[in-house]
């Protein structure tokens, strides 16, 4: 019973995490639910930028790509290589769109939080920031990844997928079960913690010395923001590949 109680407590902790707040927040009431308005606003802006850029880049495709089409194809090839490396040559195809969506959403969200002057948009409470600066967003992305690798494993192996929990020995059953709970925890907290830390590190010198001094720190934040998007996408692809190949 103690072994089963721990995963239940982990799920309860996920629910409690959604109540974590840093600073003030502006809320909307949608139906019977209270949601963070600034997260929805910035998420919609990021989604609009991604959709608009993709539409403009491929509205008149050329056999020999130039300009925006060339950049989009370069990004697509980068995501394909990432998925192929982590998932495998035979299985990666259907997962390129999922891995690419995760990578681009996190990358653009992180850079939007670092580059755009959100402070000029006044809200009744709080202020706009990167969507990934909110624990609810990172937990949602991590849970989507968990659903994806369970779906991949069950689609490939059927109910035989659950045999991985007793490999290489049934003694490891509790540890293998806990692994599936720690994966989304580590994904969500790694992304949230690093993005929040980057914004706080930039905010302090900006408030003390508004010009010149914070610029190198901001460039470092842009670099780490891109790295965090790459890490999340790489781990998501690795988990999907692992679920289809079996326990390592």
UniProtKB/TrEMBL annotation:
Gene3D superfamilies reported for this sequence: ATP synthase, F0 complex, subunit A
GO MF annotations, alphabetized: proton-transporting ATP synthase activity, rotational mechanism
Top-level taxon of the source organism: Eukaryota
Any Pfam family the entry gives: ATP-synt_A
Keyword check for ATP-binding: no
PROSITE patterns: ATPASE_A
Gene Ontology CC terms, in alphabetical order: chloroplast thylakoid membrane; plasma membrane; proton-transporting ATP synthase complex
Cellular localization per UniProt: Membrane; Plastid, Chloroplast thylakoid membrane
Membrane topology classification: Multi-pass membrane protein
SUPFAM superfamilies: F1F0 ATP synthase subunit A
Keywords from the UniProt entry: ATP synthesis, CF(0), Chloroplast, Hydrogen ion transport, Ion transport, Membrane, Plastid, Thylakoid, Transmembrane, Transmembrane helix, Transport
TM segment ranges: 35-58, 92-115, 135-154, 191-213, 219-240
Subunit structure: F-type ATPases have 2 components, CF(1) - the catalytic core - and CF(0) - the membrane proton channel. CF(1) has five subunits: alpha(3), beta(3), gamma(1), delta(1), epsilon(1). CF(0) has four main subunits: a, b, b' and c.
Function, as annotated: Key component of the proton channel; it plays a direct role in the translocation of protons across the membrane.
Family from the record: Belongs to the ATPase A chain family.
Protein name, entry field: ATP synthase subunit a, chloroplastic
Organism per entry: Amentotaxus formosana
């Amino acid at each position: 019973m103690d072994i089963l109680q721990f995963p239940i407590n982990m799920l309860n902790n996920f629910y409690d995490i959604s109540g974590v707040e840093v600073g003030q927040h502006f809320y909307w009431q949608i139906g019977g639910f209270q949601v963070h308005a600034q997260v929805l606003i910035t998420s919609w802006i990021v989604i609009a930028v991604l959709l608009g850029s993709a539409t403009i880049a491929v509205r008149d495709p050329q056999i020999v790509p130039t300009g925006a089409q060339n950049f989009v194809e370069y990004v697509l090839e980068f995501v394909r290589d990432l998925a192929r490396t982590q998932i495998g040559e035979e299985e990666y195809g259907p997962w390129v769109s999922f891995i690419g969506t995760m990578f681009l959403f996190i990358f653009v969200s992180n850079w939007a939080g670092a580059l755009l002057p959100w402070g000029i948009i006044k809200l009744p409470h709080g202020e706009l920031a990167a969507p990934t600066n909110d624990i609810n967003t990172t937990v949602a992305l991590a849970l989507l990844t968990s659903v994806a690798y369970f779906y991949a494993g069950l689609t490939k192996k059927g109910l035989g997928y659950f045999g991985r929990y007793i490999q290489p020995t049934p003694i490891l059953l509790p540890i293998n079960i806990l692994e599936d709970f720690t994966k989304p925890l580590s994904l969500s907290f790694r992304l949230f913690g690093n993005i929040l830390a980057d914004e706080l590190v930039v905010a302090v010198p900006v408030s003390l010395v508004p010009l010149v001094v914070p610029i190198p720190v901001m460039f470092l934040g842009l670099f780490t923001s891109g790295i965090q998007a790459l890490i999340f996408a790489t781990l998501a692809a690795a988990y999907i590949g692992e679920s289809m190949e079996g326990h390592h």
